[in-house]
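[Q] Does anyone have a clean structure-token version of this?
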Amino acid sequence: MALILSIDTSTKVCSVALHQDGKILACSELYTEKSHSGMLTTLCENIVNHSGFSLNQLDAIAVAKGPGSYTGLRIGVSTAKGFCFALDKPLISVNTLEAMIMQISDFFPENYLFCPMIDARRMEVYCSIWDKKHHNILETEAKIIDEYSFLDLLNTQPIVFFGDGAEKCREAISHKNAIFLDNTVHPSAKTIGILATKSFEESLFENVVSFEPFYLKDFVGTQPKKI
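[A] Here you go.
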């Protein structure tokens, strides 16, 4: 019976969940800016202990590998690797965008495609396209959105666009087969844990020493303002 602690810090949401054999036992999420570094370890320890387990009883640690916020991903992966080293547990990584699809796919017909979008900057988003059975139709990429984006696919079937990057693309993608959700879907450890359970069963583990987040593109810092 696999007991897996999952972490997702791909965006401003700090999300932690505990799953046993793919079924969620507990979840804790903070929607506060800059909560990752100060609260993540505490959230992890609390949901394990409050569920009646100890950290040593975990079978694996799972983490959303990205894409997403550079700083958020770095904190999430560093924390997950820290637990793995300290507890001698395997590390599992999950694509953030694929896990987001699991939050909504059951509400749509079989012929629909799904395009999760995480906000990057200006008209750029991190995105990919999947079908309901989790077949990857378009690989994960950092994409600048305009009226021609995804046109070939939109001409053949409906695509659901969602995530915190979708709203700014609503006007650019005006095709009749483009569906935008009214509510924002944030990445969550609740679905990271489900996919991580499948990876655990297949022994798909990362090298804890060498594993790095899926940043997708280089970090661009800002210069401090002169006073």
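[Q] Thanks! Anything notable?
[A] The two ends are 57 Å apart (CA to CA).
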